[in-house]
């Protein structure tokens, strides 16, 4: 299935337009520079005046709202971003960061991992990552996308995110700080989120193929949870098209094994795609609900 979801939902184009408003404003300011320094300064002043005007109006609206209504408004991404810009959000930064971490905790749990907020000092958020998929570098990319994107969306005013080392575990874990450094050390952007509402059509136990931003993705549903992986078997380098989910004999409910239709290699879908019968690892991609839409994070630079 080819995913061009923004055009399928009547509200999605508007949502996408407002999300890109900052970029459009910056582009217009850059264009004004062609008229010289004075023209640029006047354009910037105009933007400031408009922002302050609407900010003052928004502050008066907030003063008239009861706590319950303000809480409801703060749950909307666009309204929340406006409240944050004008310092009117009802929640302090630590509350927002904790809520953001809670939103991605189910995804981290599917990788056998977890995240803890150590503290926020001088605009720096310090986290401790534990567990997670230990043997696959690509998993560190997806974990960064999920955690950092959620935290920065909830608290855009933070200066940086730091990861402190957890206590060593018997499984020889990847150092937690590497989860945030691997992508940057490769000199590439971590990736982008693409809305794929078609994922919601998958029923329990079903597997489907989707084209997301040019990348072929294999998605499957285990119970209420959705999992997405790059359509590539590391054992035989073939597509996983036609693969089905199986439950191992004697395994508890929720066990899900994906078998490559070409080489018969078996992968644990729930535990980050780790191979069960040998070495290798599927490449997991985060699946989260963003702005009310199921979205998949696709790393930049990964060939489709």
From TrEMBL:
May be involved in the formation or repair of [Fe-S] clusters present in iron-sulfur proteins. PROSITE patterns: RIESKE. Gene3D superfamilies: Fe-S cluster assembly (FSCA), Rieske [2Fe-2S] iron-sulphur domain. This is Rieske domain-containing protein. The keyword Iron applies. The keyword Iron-sulfur applies. Residues 194-296 form the Rieske domain. It comes from the Bacteria. PANTHER family: IRON-SULFUR CLUSTER SCAFFOLD PROTEIN NFU-RELATED (PTHR11178). It comes from Nocardia jinanensis. One of its GO terms (molecular function) is iron ion binding. Keywords: 2Fe-2S, Iron, Iron-sulfur, Metal-binding. GO terms for biological process: iron-sulfur cluster assembly.
């Amino acid at each position: 299935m080819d995913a061009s979801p923004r055009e399928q939902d009547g509200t999605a184009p508007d949502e996408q337009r407002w999300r890109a408003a900052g970029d459009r404003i910056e582009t217009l300011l850059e264009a004004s520079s062609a008229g010289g320094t004075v023209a640029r300064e006047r354009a910037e002043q105009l933007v400031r005046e408009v922002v302050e005007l609407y900010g003052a109006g928004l502050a008066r609206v907030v003063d008239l709202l009861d706590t319950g209504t303000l809480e409801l408004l703060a749950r909307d991404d666009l309204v929340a971003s406006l409240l944050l810009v004008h310092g009117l959000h009802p929640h302090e930064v630590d509350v927002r960061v904790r809520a953001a971490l809670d939103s991605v905790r189910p995804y981290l749990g599917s990788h056998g991992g977890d995240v803890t907020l150590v503290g926020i000092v001088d605009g720096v958020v310090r986290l401790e990552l534990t567990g997670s998929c230990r043997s696959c570098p690509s998993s560190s990319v997806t974990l960064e996308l999920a955690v950092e994107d959620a935290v920065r969306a909830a608290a855009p005013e933070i200066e940086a995110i730091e990861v402190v080392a957890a206590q060593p575990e018997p499984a020889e874990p990847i150092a937690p700080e590497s989860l945030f450094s691997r992508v940057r050390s490769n000199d590439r952007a971590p990736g982008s989120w693409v809305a794929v509402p078609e994922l919601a059509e998958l029923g329990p136990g079903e597997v489907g193929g989707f084209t997301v931003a040019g990348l072929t993705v294999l998605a499957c549903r285990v119970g209420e949870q959705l999992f997405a992986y790059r359509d590539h078997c590391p054992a035989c380098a073939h597509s996983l098209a036609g693969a089905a989910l199986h439950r191992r004999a004697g395994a508890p409910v929720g066990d899900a094994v994906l078998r490559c239709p070409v080489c018969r290699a078996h992968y644990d879908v729930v535990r980050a795609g780790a191979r069960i019968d040998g070495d290798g690892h599927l490449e997991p991609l985060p699946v989260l609900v963003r702005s009310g839409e199921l979205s998949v994070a696709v790393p930049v630079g990964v060939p489709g």
